[in-house]
Amino acid sequence: MQSKPVLSADDVRKIATAAEAEARAHRWAVSIAIVDDGGHPLWLQRLDGAPPISAYMAPEKARAAALGRRESRVYEEMINEGRTAFLSAPVLAGMLEGGVPIVIGGHVVGAVGVSGVKSSEDAQIARAGIAALGT
After folding, report:
1. What's the mean pLDDT in 115-119?
2. Count of other CB atoms within 10 angstroms of residue 60
C-alpha cells in the first residue's frame, strides 16, 4: 500500500493567507481557490472588487491543475498551439494560466487556482500561496 501526504486545514489556511497577502500587496482583486488532489474544493475566497466570474474560474483552474498534475497553463498552450480538440477534454474547464499544483514529496496533494488579473499574475499569486508551505 502506498502512502502520501495530504493537505491539512492549517495548510490550506497558510496557502490562502499567503496568496491573499500577495494579491493585496499588488492591489489585485482576485478570487483564490484551493482544491485537494481530486479537485475537490477546500477553499474559495473572492476579494473585494474581484469580478464575479473569477469565483467560477479560480476553482476550475485549480481543478485542472490538480487532476492534470501540471500547471493549467499547459492546456492553454496546447490549445493555442493548435490542438483545439483538447477543448473537448472531459471535466477540465479551467484550461487557462493561473492553476498551480501543490507538490509535496513528489506527490500532487492539491492545487491553487487564481483568477481576476492577468494570467501570469494569477499564477504568481498561486505560487506565493504554495510557497508558504515551505516546500
Report:
1. 98
2. 23
Grid cell digits, residue 105: 514529496
Q: In whole angstroms, give the CA distance from residue 109 to residue 118.
A: 26
Residue-wise pLDDT tens digits, 63-87:
999 999 999 999 999 999 999 998 8
Q: Amino acid letter at 19?
A: A
Query: Helix (H, G, I), strand (E, B), or coil: what is residue 120?
Result: helix
**Secondary structure (DSSP) of 45-99:** EE-TT--TTHHHHHHHHHHHHHHHTS-THHHHHHHHTT-GGGGG-SS----SS-E
Q: Cell numbers of 89, please?
A: 477534454
**The residue type at 77:** E
